[in-house]
Amino acid sequence: MGASHSQEEQQFQLQSQHHQQQQQQPQPHEPARRESWSLSPEGNTKSSKNTTKTQSSMPVKPWNFQGPIPHNYEHILKDADSPVANSSNWGNLLDQLYAGVFLAHKTKKYWVEKKSNSNCFVVYARALSITWAENQNYWTWEQKKEESCYVCCSGSMIELAKLKRVCWLEVHGKFDIGMVSPGVLYQVSFIVMLKDSAEGWEIPINVRLVLPGGRKQEQRENLMDKSRERWIEIRVGEFVASEKDAGQMEISMYEYEGGMWKTGLIIQGLSIKPNN
Hints:
One of its GO terms (molecular function) is carbohydrate binding. Pfam families: PP2 (PF14299). By secondary structure, the chain is an alpha+beta fold. The protein has 4 helices and 13 strands. Helix content is about 15%, strand content about 35%. The strands form 2 sheets. Strands 1, 2, 3, 5, 6, 8, 11 and 13 form an 8-stranded antiparallel β-sheet that branches. A 5-stranded antiparallel β-sheet has the order 4-7-12-9-10, with no helix packed on it. The chain is globular and about 55 Å long. Mean pLDDT is about 80; it is low at about 1-5 and about 20-60.
């Protein structure tokens, strides 16, 4: 028992030292940002001729369509994995947006909530920065059919991050606030599952939302009280964006000060959707 305890202390020290080294260099598994998620306006550099062409290509809402055109949808769909209906066929396009569209090589999903006509997103685990995620001693990756009730499910195969054993839990994600619908109250949550065999969660985890400009929301969540063997939401925070807002919001989940070895957590991703 003494030798095993000493070995765990050495592993904890190694993880702590490795984390300090990672802070000085980019995470190797953190996905590169794609330019299509930038909010840099393109119209300022185009001629009046091109501007006229762009304006004329905007879809005309059919007489029976209620509500505004989904915010920034054309810019978002530039990152779609598969072709979507042409904007001239508004009915088919709306059907696809309601059903959900995979983005950025199936690391994100975009859909429009029919009730509020608001943009919704999920950022899957592969698009998050998870400390030790590429070390198979601590995490593994698994392809599984999407079945969470918290996102617009298509039954497609997605990639999940499965925790084997760590004492240093640290997960970070970023998202462009300009993609959400202005004036709508949004909730940001991690979508996770705890297995029946999960251990080491006696110490509450920390969750944090940092909005562009530095406004921060932080809280602690006790996973010991959460359901097992089903997908659950760990609420991180809420916000309302305006049309003038720009920049990245940062979402985090972490616990590494208690030193307890944690097991049995599965991460599907982050959901960003209206708080109805």
